[in-house]
Amino acid sequence: MLSEMLPKLPPSESKIAAYILKNPKESISLTASELGKQSNTSSAAVIRLCKSLDLKGFQDLKLRIAGDLQKTKEQGFRDIEPNESLSSIIQKMTNNSIQTLRETAELLSTDELSKAVDAIQNAKTIHFFGVGASNIIAQDAQQKFLRINHMSNAFSDLHLAATVIANASEEDVVVGISFSGQTIEVAKLIELANQKGATTISLTKYGSSMVSDRADIRLYTSTTKEATFRSGATSSRMAQLHVIDILFMRAASQQYEETVKHLDKTREAVDFIKGKHKSKIK
Question: How many helices (H) and strands (E) does the chain have?
Answer without folding.
Answer: 13, 5
